[in-house]
């Protein structure tokens, strides 16, 4: 039985922090595989800044040298009304029925779930396990204990709380802004992705 982490994000573009985070979690949580899952451009709550094909190609370039890292475009092909994390995890549990799956997310998303901002939150929390990454200013244990939904499903294995140790939070937004204003974010993302962005004149 393998341990697999599902790591969803817009990856617009993928950054070195995304890769460092995935590597750190794979090491700390003894994961056999991390699946990079770019979100759908059909979502009504997010606006992508470049075409799906470019996000997808950059992810493949970024993870090509790590055998533990895989890319999956499942959500990219979903309609807006089908893109819910509960549905996504059900899909992967059907795809990997013998394996142990974890949804990887930041503590800010844990707060959103606790505040009732996620659809199918009860089903999602009741039927899945989570690796939660620390975010500055968020007390993860307090978030769980103050939420009836989270605390009543916390059996000691539901939430694996991870403090990465360093506050490396260079965002895709920052990188996009640097490109758009003629900045030089070269060493904030993989060299292959940097060259791809330059070649295709993305984020201009």
TrEMBL record:
Pfam families associated with the record: CTP_transf_like
GO molecular function, one term: nicotinate-nucleotide adenylyltransferase activity
Biological pathway: Cofactor biosynthesis; NAD(+) biosynthesis; deamido-NAD(+) from nicotinate D-ribonucleotide: step 1/1
EC number: 2.7.7.18
Domain Cytidyltransferase-like: start-end pairs: 6-177
Keywords: ATP-binding, NAD, Nucleotide-binding, Nucleotidyltransferase, Pyridine nucleotide biosynthesis, Transferase
The keyword Transferase belongs to this UniProt entry's keyword annotation: yes
Gene3D superfamilies: HUPs (3.40.50.620)
Group of enzyme by EC: transferase
Residue ranges of the TM segments: none
UniProt keyword NAD present: yes
Reaction(s) catalysed (UniProt annotation): nicotinate beta-D-ribonucleotide + ATP + H(+) = deamido-NAD(+) + diphosphate
Annotated InterPro entries: Cyt_trans-like, NadD/NMNAT, Rossmann-like_a/b/a_fold
Role this protein plays: Catalyzes the reversible adenylation of nicotinate mononucleotide (NaMN) to nicotinic acid adenine dinucleotide (NaAD).
Family under the similarity heading: Belongs to the NadD family.
Name of the protein in its database record: Probable nicotinate-nucleotide adenylyltransferase
